[in-house]
């Protein structure tokens, strides 16, 4: 099954859905062998085409459509971090980290499918069974959505597998009694909600509209903000949900409500992909002159930097995730090539989008005639260059991988010199260790400061203001840090 030093794709493997007569959307993931494995779940695609179920015929398979460059960089940050750790003898000497990476396509059933694939350790998903004694699974990096992370945390928590999320910020996940093995490298949304309320109060807006996606992230975030605004004496013009299961129909209602409302300040807690249909309807209705207060999930989205949104989003303010530098990451991306990870179909898709070309061994499209073979990524970056500068979530992913690695290093030192760790080599310690041992070490404060991970973090945001340039393009300006204790 394993290809030494390489990867394999799991696309097309029969799933439980297929066995039950429900067509699978096609699994998309790949692995790289190592002495110890880390799982990763990322929503590389965000737009799932769902056909109406009539119950008179077999359901049509759901397909993942829109490839998001930013989200692909999250995945690449995990690959880069593992390769960097493997080259550094000071982190895990004589041990190679490998990974299982899966594209969830912002679908809960795919997130669960990916989790079970990672846990079973086999190319073919085997439910409720770990098929390999080696290599050891140390932990899982993911998911992005708070709702998905909550579901996965209940699954991983059964076996105390450490789960480190890079983008799930719901306050619910801080409950250690419910989610004992969940960690994250992004602040709890309770702090952001308070901060956004303070921002609204600072500017003197007392008549405010509220929108939130109907998920744990949106509902908890907007509720805390609403309470803070009312407590400060502001009035709520309306508080509505973005129905993620009925986006197009719901978008018409929300856009009409916003157009008719006298509230000019509107706060939105939502992922960018759920907000897009609402913005499209607002453009259709020619709604302008509104002030948008953005949560971190969409404030820096490259999707929303498209020219058609420039007039409607001009003047947006909000918070952005604090970022750090990933040395060598840009050069790593520029020197990338799908041949570096055989079987990684996602890298092939990224390459096609960057060059508008076709791989002969991948699915082709009629409007693409140029072959990708022989091209160098740095020559095709004009199409995707603006996606290679915002590494906020990528940095969270990078930090998550290092947090797991440093916890493993601490475990492998066999400091206790007793029980299963007596007179053990580094790899022997890993084999004898249980997931609970990793979890305990992730909770400790002995990790290097640059790679700390916790259920509660010191909160630091950047304030962002969006303006239109002379060419009517959206330009983001980042202001001094907004610290919350």
TrEMBL record:
Keywords: Cell membrane, G-protein coupled receptor, Glycoprotein, Membrane, Receptor, Signal, Transducer, Transmembrane, Transmembrane helix
Pfam families assigned: ANF_receptor
GO molecular function list: G protein-coupled receptor activity
Domain of life: Eukaryota
Tagged with keyword Transferase: no
Main localisation: membrane
Residue span(s) of domain Receptor ligand binding region: 74-429
Topology term for the membrane: Multi-pass membrane protein
Location of the protein in the cell: Cell membrane
Recorded GO CC terms: plasma membrane
Protein name stated in the entry: Receptor ligand binding region domain-containing protein
């Amino acid at each position: 099954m394993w290809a030494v030093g390489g990867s394999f794709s799991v696309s097309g493997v029969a799933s439980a859905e297929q066995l039950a007569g429900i067509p699978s959307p096609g699994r998309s993931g790949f692995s790289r062998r190592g002495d110890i494995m880390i799982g990763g779940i990322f929503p590389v695609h965000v737009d799932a085409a769902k056909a109406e179920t009539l119950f008179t015929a077999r359901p049509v398979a759901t397909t993942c459509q829109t490839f998001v460059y930013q989200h692909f960089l999250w995945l690449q940050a995990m690959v880069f971090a593992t390769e960097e750790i493997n080259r550094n003898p000071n982190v895990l000497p004589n041990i190679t980290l490998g990974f299982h990476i899966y594209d969830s396509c912002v679908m809960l059933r795919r997130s669960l499918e990916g989790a079970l694939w990672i846990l079973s350790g086999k190319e073919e998903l085997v439910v409720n069974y770990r098929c390999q004694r080696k290599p050891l699974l140390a932990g899982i990096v993911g998911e992005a959505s708070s709702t998905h992370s909550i579901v996965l945390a209940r699954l991983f928590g059964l076996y105390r597998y450490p789960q480190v999320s890079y983008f799930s910020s719901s306050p619910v996940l801080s409950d250690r009694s419910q989610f004992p093995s969940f960690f994250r490298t992004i602040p709890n949304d309770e702090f952001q909600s308070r901060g956004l309320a303070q921002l609204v109060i600072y500017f003197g807006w007392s008549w405010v509209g509220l929108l939130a996606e109907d998920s744990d992230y949106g509902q908890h975030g907007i509720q805390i903000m609403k309470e803070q605004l009312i407590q400060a004496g502001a009035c709520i013009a309306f508080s509505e949900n973005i129905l993620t299961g009925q986006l197009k129909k719901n978008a018409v209602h929300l856009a009409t409500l916003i157009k008719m409302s006298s509230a000019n300040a509107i706060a939105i807690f939502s992922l960018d992909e759920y907000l897009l249909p609402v913005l499209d309807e607002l453009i259709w209705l020619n709604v302008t002159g509104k002030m948008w207060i953005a949560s971190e999930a969409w404030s820096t989205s490259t999707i929303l930097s498209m020219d058609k949104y420039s007039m409607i989003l001009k003047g947006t303010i909000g918070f952005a995730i604090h970022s750090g530098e990933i040395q060598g990451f840009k050069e790593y991306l520029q020197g990338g090539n799908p041949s570096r990870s055989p079987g990684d179909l996602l890298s092939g898709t990224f390459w096609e989008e960057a060059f508008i070309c076709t791989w002969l061994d991948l699915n082709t499209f009629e409007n693409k005639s140029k072959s990708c073979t022989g091209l160098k990524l740095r020559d095709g970056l004009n199409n995707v260059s603006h996606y290679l500068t915002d590494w906020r979530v990528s940095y969270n992913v990078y930090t998550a991988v290092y947090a797991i690695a440093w916890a493993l290093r601490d475990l492998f030192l066999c400091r206790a010199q007793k029980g299963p760790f007596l007179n053990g080599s580094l790899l022997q310690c890993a084999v004898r260790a249980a997931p609970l041992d990793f979890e305990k070490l992730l909770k400790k404060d002995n990790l290097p400061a640059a790679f700390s991970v916790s259920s509660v973090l010191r909160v630091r945001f950047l304030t962002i203001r969006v303006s239109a340039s002379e060419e009517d393009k959206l330009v983001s300006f980042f202001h001094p840090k907004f610290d919350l204790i």
